[in-house]
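Please, structure for the following, as tokens.
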Amino acid sequence: MTETLYDVAIVGYGPIGQMLALLLGQKGYHVLVVERWPDRYPLPRAVHYDHEVARIIQAAGISAALASTTELTDLYEWRNAQGETLLALDQRGTGLSGWPESTMFTQPIFEAVLAAQVASLPTIHLRRGWEVFQVEQSAEHVELTVRKKKSEVSPNVETLTMQARYLVGADGANSFALQQMNTSITDLGFLFDWLVVDVIPHEERQWSPLCWQLCDPARPTTLVSGGKGRRRWEFMRLEGESVEDLNQTETAWRLLAPWEVTPQNATLERHAVYTFRARWADNWRNGRILLAGDAAHLMPPFAGQGMGVGMRDVMNLLWKLDLVLSGRADDEILTSYTSERL
């Protein structure tokens, strides 16, 4: 079955896919979003955005809805094992974009606000619980074949063939869209496992500075806000430790104990081991298929720019696709997308 020709199909409905769908929908374009997971991921991931991303959030019309759940930063420090400051970045005040220089937030809340805004737009068609498994492109459009994931409610596999003028892969680190690209990958060889621990303190506590890095070879550690009322620790896996042993609730509490965080005074919201990487696709466009966010690039989280870089991808794609879809520019303008964003 082939449905309506959409202006843009987006694979992936994390914050990058949500933002692109929302901004295109606000301009009246018909957008198809395909997300393989049936429900939104409920636990924290990204926790920081800067003044440029805050301005993008303003353009999306959701600043007011987020304001009560965010926390502004002060200093971002790197300290050695003796507690001496090695580097201090002053992130107080207003950035060049007219918004706070640095803001900490909670991603599930952020995604819920985006989703509500997307749902208000009639030209956006979201298919949750569907996955793309085949893509073909012609001179005029991209044809994608999608299937609904099996479930207890729907044990049969249902497939659909859908068409769009362009397809944007915003489907994360294990991107299906990336597999459709004719591109090499640049990998800097940065490959380290870290235990990420998110907690909700039971009582308000002063953290100073709000965000900092402990540069102690005995256990490199990140300590940051996770948005208002939340804290995050990231602990590097040491030589001789297994991922399985590190990713245990007991291990999380043991590593939190020196910071006076215990089951008696905090709730462990989640713990997960992530492999921090630094790599990117060398080409983000293959005809009518484009990449954005983690599908195009992965970076360690220490500067808190992973999601922000993806949001900048969105804004670059937005104005280009707007010109092309409205007939005001040839799609050759999309060729500069990669060079402008890399």
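The radius of gyration is 21 Å. The chain has a mean pLDDT of 95.
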